[in-house]
Design a protein that fits this description.
This protein has about 475 residues and is of the alpha+beta class. The chain has helices spanning about 10-50, 60-75, 75-95, 115-145, 145-170, 255-270, 270-280, 300-305, 330, 345-360, 360-375, 385-395, 405-425, 440-455; strands at about 180-185, 195-205, 210-215, 225-230, 250, 250-255, 280-285, 290-295, 310-320, 325, 340. The protein folds into 3 domains: about 10-110, no CATH class; about 145-340, Beta Polymerase, domain 2; about 345-464, Orthogonal Bundle (Poly(a)-polymerase, middle domain). It is built from 14 helices and 11 strands. Helix 11 crosses helix 13 (about 405-425). The longest helix is centred in the N-terminal third of the chain and has 43 residues, at about 10-50. Bound molecules: 2-acetamido-2-deoxy-beta-D-glucopyranose (2 copies). It is found in: Mitochondrion outer membrane.
Length: about 475
C-alpha cells in the first residue's frame, strides 16, 4: 500500500481513510469517489510527510513544498474538500470510532462561482459556456493540423518510403516482404499539434505452417503485451526452409536479429546524403536509438528555417492470425526474441467505426486530450494509448457522443482518468488483463492525479 504507517495512530488514520473511500463509492458512485480518492491520497501523503523524521529524504522536502503551494493554489478545492470534509471526518471517526456507520459525504461538485443559489445556476452556465467556447477554440487553433501540413508531411514520408522499399528489394531480393505501408496517427488523422512523425510498416511474410505465435501470458515473461514466435516442425522442415530461419534464437524468431538486418540495410547501406537532392529534404539515420528511426529536416521551406524535425520509424511487423507483432525494441528492451503486440490498429479502427455509426466526437475528444497531455509537462506520461483506451471504455457506457456534448465528454474523460489513476490500473480495452499504467511509478501517478484533480474545478488550466 501507498501509505506505510509505523505508529499506532497512523494505522488508525489509514484505516479511516480507506473506510471513507469505500463508503464514498456507495454514496457518490465510482467517478465521484475517484475524485475524493485523489483528495484523500493528498491527505495520506501529508500525514506521511508529517510523521517522517526531518532528516529522512531531505531532497524530497522541496517536493512537498511544491505540493503545499499547489494545495494553496486552489484553496476552494483542496481546503474545502480535503481538510473541511475528510479531515473533519477523520477526527470524528477516530474519536468516536463510529466505523460501523456510513458517513454521508457531500458531492465534490465543481464550484465554479460563488453566488447565492438563484444566481448561481446562471453563473455556472456562464462558466460552462466560456469553457465550451474555449475548448472549441483550442481544438481549432491548437489541436488540429492544417490540411497542407498533413499533405506535405505525408508526401515526403511517402517519397522516403518508396526509396526504402526499392533499396530493400534491390539489396535482399529473396526477402519475403509484404506491402510496405505508412501508418500511424498522421495517416489516421489523429496526429495533433505538429506533424512530426509517421511509421513505415515492413511486413515479414511468415509461412503459417512453420511459425506459431505464443501469447506473452503463456510464456515465462507472463506479460500480455508481448508475444513470441515459435518455429514449428523443425524435424520435417529443417532450418533453412524458411528465409526467416536465419533470425532464429533458441527456436524463436528474434526481433533483435530482424531489426539488425533491416537496420544494416536502411540505416547503414542506404546513401542518405546522396538522396537529399532527389527527396528535397535532409534525411539522417538516428544513431544510438534502439529503434530504426530516420530524422528528416526541411519538410518544407518554413520548417527548415525553424529547425523542425520529422521522424519516420521503420517497424518490422509480423501478422499472424489476428495478431500484429512489432519489433519495437524501445518497448521489448533486452528480450531479444520477444515481439510487441500492438493494439493500435484495432483500437483506432474501433473508434472510427463507433464515430461513423453516430457521427460522434470520440476522436475529437481523443485528439484534444492528446494535445493537452503533450503540452502539459505533468501529464506527458499519459500517452495516446492510455487516452484511446479511456475513450473506448467510456464508449461502453456513454451513448451520446454528439457535438453538443463534446465538452462534457472531455471533462468526463478527465474524471475517468482520475479514477483509473487512483486505482493505478487502466485495463486495456481489448486485453483487460493488461494494465496500461504498468511501468508508471507512484510519483508519476500522483503528479498526474493532482494536475487532473485541479482541472476539475478549473478546466481552463489544461488549455494553457
Ligand atoms: C504549450 O503550448 C504553448 C503554445 O503552443 C507553448 O508556448 C508552451 O511551451 C507549451 N508547453 C509545453 C510544456 O510544451
Ligand atoms: C505508453 O506509456 C506506457 C506506460 O508508461 C508504456 O508502457 C507504453 O509503452 C506507452 N505506449 C506507447 C504507445 O508509447
Amino acid at each position: 500500500m501507498y501509505y506505510s504507517g509505523k505508529r499506532r495512530g497512523e494505522d488508525g488514520i489509514a484505516a479511516v481513510i480507506d473506510f471513507l473511500l469505500s463508503n464514498a463509492r456507495l454514496v457518490l458512485g465510482v467517478s465521484g469517489a475517484a475524485v475524493l480518492g485523489i483528495a484523500t491520497l493528498a491527505v495520506k501523503r501529508l500525514i506521511e510527510r508529517a510523521g517522517r523524521p526531518p532528516d529522512e529524504k531531505p531532497d524530497k522536502m522541496t517536493d512537498s513544498w511544491e505540493e503545499l503551494s499547489l494545495v494553496s493554489a486552489s484553496p476552494k478545492l483542496l481546503h474545502k474538500s480535503i481538510e473541511g470534509v475528510v479531515m473533519k471526518r477523520i477526527d470524528t471517526a477516530t474519536q468516536k470510532a463510529e466505523l460501523s456507520q456510513a458517513i454521508p459525504l457531500p458531492s465534490p461538485e465543481p464550484q465554479c462561482c460563488d453566488a447565492d443559489p438563484p444566481q448561481r445556476r446562471k453563473h455556472m452556465d456562464l462558466c460552462v459556456m466560456t469553457f465550451v467556447d474555449r475548448l472549441q477554440q483550442y481544438y481549432r487553433t491548437r489541436v488540429c493540423l492544417s490540411a497542407e501540413e498533413v499533405s506535405v508531411a505525408q508526401q515526403r514520408a511517402l517519397d522516403i518510403a518508396t526509396e526504402i522499399k526499392a533499396f530493400l528489394h534491390y539489396k535482399h531480393p529473396d526477402m519475403p516482404l509484404g506491402d510496405m505501408t505508412l501508418a500511424g496517427s498522421l495517416i489516421d488523422n489523429l496526429q495533433v499539434v505538429k506533424a512530426d512523425h509517421a511509421c513505415l510498416i515492413v511486413p515479414l511474410q511468415l509461412e503459417s505452417s512453420l511459425w506459431t505465435p505464443i501469447a506473452g501470458e503463456d510464456t515465462f515473461l507472463g506479460h500480455p503485451k508481448f508475444c513470441m514466435v515459435r518455429r514449428e516442425n523443425l524435424e520435417y522442415f529443417p532450418r533453412g526452409r524458411s528465409y526467416w530461419d536465419r533470425h532464429l534464437l533458441a527456436g524463436y524468431l528474434s526481433s533483435r536479429l530482424v531489426s539488425e538486418q533491416l537496420g544494416k540495410t536502411v540505416m547503414e547501406s542506404m546513401n542518405w546524403p546522396l538522396l537529399t537532392g532527389t527527396l528535397e529534404c535532409e534525411v539522417r539515420p538516428v544513431l544510438g536509438s534502439p529503434e530504426l528511426k530516420l530524422e528528416i529536416k526541411g519538410l518544407s521551406q518554413s520548417s527548415y528555417e525553424s529547425g523542425e524535425r520529422f521522424y519516420i520509424t521503420v517497424l518490422p511487423t509480423v501478422r499472424l492470425g489476428e495478431m500484429t507483432l512489432m519489433a519495437q525494441r524501445e518497448i521489448t528492451g533486452s528480450f531479444d526474441y520477444v515481439w510487441y503486440q500492438s493494439l493500435y490498429t484495432s483500437e483506432t479502427a474501433r473508434l472510427a467505426e463507433l464515430d461513423k455509426a453516430d457521427s460522434g466526437v470520440r476522436r475529437k475528444c481523443l485528439k484534444t486530450l492528446k494535445a493537452v497531455c503533450c503540452n502539459c509537462t505533468s501529464l506527458r506520461k499519459l500517452n495516446a494509448s492510455h487516452l484511446r483506451n479511456v475513450i473506448l471504455h467510456m464508449s461502453e457506457n456513454e451513448a451520446d457522443w454528439t457535438e453538443s456534448v463534446f465538452a462534457d465528454r472531455f471533462l468526463q474523460a478527465i474524471t475517468e482518468l482520475i479514477g483509473y489513476l487512483e486505482t493505478g490500473i487502466l485495463p486495456s480495452y481489448f486485453k483487460p488483463n493488461l494494465n496500461l499504467f504498468q511501468g508508471l511509478n507512484e510519483d508519476d501517478i500522483d503528479e498526474m492525479g493532482y494536475m487532473l484533480y485541479s482541472a476539475i474545478t478549473e478546466p481552463e488550466i489544461l488549455l494553457i
